[in-house]
Amino acid sequence: MTAVIPIGRLPLLDPGRARLVDDRLVFDAPGGLHRALGDGCFALAMPADFDPAPGRRLARDFHREAGPDLPREAALWHGFRAETAIYFDREHFQTEHLLADAAQRAARFPAPVTAMADRMHDIAGRVLRAILTDLGVAPALWHQVTDGTVAGGGVRWFAVSHYRSDRALDGAPAHKDTGFVTVLYCEQPGLEAELDGVWHDVLPVPGHFLINFGGALELLTADLARPAHAVLHRVRRSGRGPDGEDRFSFAAFLNPGADTDLYRLAPDGHGARAVIPVEDFLKAFNAQTWRDRHAGFGILKRDPAEG
Questions:
Q1: What Å distances lie between residue 58 and 76, 87, 97, 159, CA to CA?
Q2: Pairing of strands 12-13, 87-89
Q3: What is the pLDDT of residue 297?
Q4: Hey, what long-range contacts does 198-204 have (CB within 8 A, 24 or more apart)?
Q5: Alpha-carbon distance 118 to 114, whole Å?
Q6: Which reaction does it catalyse (predicted)?
Q7: In this predicted structure, what is the pLDDT of residue 169?
Q8: Nearest alpha-carbon partner for 51 in 241, 250, 189
Q9: What is the model's pLDDT at position 294?
Q10: Helices 53-61 & 111-134, crossing angle to 10 degrees?
Q11: Domain spanning 18-296: which CATH class is it, in words?
């Protein structure tokens, strides 16, 4: 049996820290944005009134069966393995997860989770607008090159992951997120990121989200003087924590719809050209990353909630 990989075998990545002030990113250290663009990630202070409890509860309960004696309110948080449209069993990894768009969340998720996810997507949009501003991208291009994700459009995925400690497998494969910006909540170790060809442990920063830049943003900014790097990351095999609970996480993603194209900006940020259909990009990602039966994972032409 494969041993659980202990913390400390890799160098540590202590991500740069920032906070949102209106639609501006204010980093704690000089050069913070430059570092974040190179690392492909940074830690963002959570709003003082942000409550992660609904996400924690769903992550710990969605994979449990809803027994007949469970009160109706509690049953809403259980039994998701039967929801084949949004539940994914990753046979080659520890992770099992939910992936739901806005309409699916409204139909199936407990209301507190839906409200929390909306809040995280709003934060993701503010981060994306701040990055485009700081990189000098012409605002007139924002809607076109992001499929409207700067203003609530595109596809707003929300994922909830549970890592099954009884499986002697890696937690999740090495991959880059596919969209523009990811807002990740995790409070247990296990996440690893590659910087300059070297894997690092990424320890959670209390009171902070981890912001990841994805492949769509990397491609969009590739020709700018300061491009954004999409961080390659993975989750090692995870055991139970000191509290006896399995590892979990949840995240909000800003993605373009699959019926549009990914764009690349001109070096001055005032022009752009289409590079590849989003659907082709996502199909290649699924084949290379998960290597399982879920070929259509994360491919949605338009978030139904956006009309």
A1: 9, 13, 11, 11
A2: unpaired
A3: 45
A4: 198/11, 199/10, 199/234, 200/10, 200/11, 200/12, 200/13, 201/7, 201/8, 201/9, 201/10, 201/11, 201/12, 201/13, 202/12, 202/13, 202/15, 202/41, 202/233, 203/7, 203/12, 203/13, 203/14
A5: 6
A6: L-arginine + 2-oxoglutarate + O2 = guanidine + L-glutamate 5-semialdehyde + succinate + CO2; 2-oxoglutarate + O2 + 2 H(+) = ethene + 3 CO2 + H2O
A7: 93
A8: 250
A9: 44
A10: 120
A11: mainly beta
**DSSP assignments along 49-102, one per residue:** T---HHHHHHHHHTTS---TTS-HHHHTTS-GGG-TTTEEE-TTSSEEEEEE-H
**Structure tokens given for 306:** 């956006």
Query: What is the per-residue pLDDT for 305?
Result: 56
Terminal-residue alpha carbon distance, the chain: 49
Residue 53, token pair as written in the block:
């409890």
Helix (H, G, I), strand (E, B) or coil at 39: helix
pTM score, whole prediction: 0.91
- Phi and psi for 15 in degrees, rounded to 5? -65, 150
Short-list 209, 15, 31, CA closest to 134: 31
Q: Which residue has the tokens 């290379």?
A: 288
- The one-letter amino acid code at 264 reads R
* Mode of pairing for the β-strands spanning 232-235 and 272-277: unpaired
Q: Enter the tokens of residue 301.
A: 């032409």
Contact by Cβ (8 Å): 282, 166: no
Q: Strands, DSSP E only, in 131-218?
A: 155-163, 172-175, 181-185, 191-195, 198-202, 208-213
Q: Are 59 and 161 in contact (CB under 8 A)?
A: yes
State which amino acid sits at residue 87: Y
State residue 90's pLDDT score: 81
* pLDDT on residue 217: 97
For the chain, list residues with pLDDT below 70: 1-8, 286-307
pLDDT for the residue numbered 70: 82
Which residue matches tokens 């992550």? 59
At 243 the pLDDT is 84
Which pLDDT belongs to residue 115? Answer: 98
